[in-house]
Amino acid sequence: MRYQITGKQIDIGEALQTHVKDVLGVVMEKYAGRPTDASVIFSRDGHEYVCEATVHLSTGLTTQARHKASEIYAAFDACATKMEKQLRRYKRRLKNHHQARQQPVELSGASSYILAAEVGETEEPEDLAPVIVAEMAMEIPSLSVGEAVMQMELAGASVLVFKNEKSGGTNVVYRRDDGNVGWIDPATSS
């Protein structure tokens, strides 16, 4: 597994990097099998240290965790504990559904745009053409609805766009205000 351990405006020592590799290695070996790469970023937020960890699994799924603490090792350990809990739930769901994915998740290319907010304007602009601030390449996974919900929860996202394996159409799952998960499937709407 490839590790990318960095600090934003703080120095990350060799001892912390070794600790991160050891702990993540144990967690991934126990629950994930074949992770491809891990990215761990440390930063400061006031008097606290923030640890953000992202691990890409060979199945195409991604797990993310974030935690703050007054000490840098405590921030990472709590972050690793969150990630371990997510992976344990993920593994339990796979066992409960009795559907081991034989092939890696198929990914399709797409573009993602960040639009500038029109701050201070009370009237609607005449041209209605938004200003594009950034453009990024994104990948849309081909998943079942259950896997999409699981991926959304693992990533801690509120919305996930995916290609439905069953219908072949582009679908959306999202976290509703009432705490439930919504699913938009344009192929079945009339």
Question: Explain this structure to me?
Answer:
The chain has 190 residues and is of the alpha+beta class. The chain folds into 2 domains: 2-97, 2-Layer Sandwich (Double Stranded RNA Binding Domain), CATH 3.30.160.100; 106-184, Sigma 54 modulation/S30EA ribosomal protein, C-terminal domain (SHC Adaptor Protein, 2-Layer Sandwich). Helix content is 29%, strand content 38%. The chain has 3 helices and 9 strands, in the order βαβββαββαβββ. The protein has helices at residues 14-31, 72-97, 145-155; strands spanning 2-7, 35-45, 48-57, 62-69, 106-115, 132-143, 159-164, 170-175, 181-184. The strands form 2 sheets. The protein has a 5-stranded mixed beta sheet with strand order 5-6-7-8-9. It has a 4-stranded mixed beta sheet with strand order 1-2-3-4. The longest helix has 26 residues, at 72-97. It is globular.
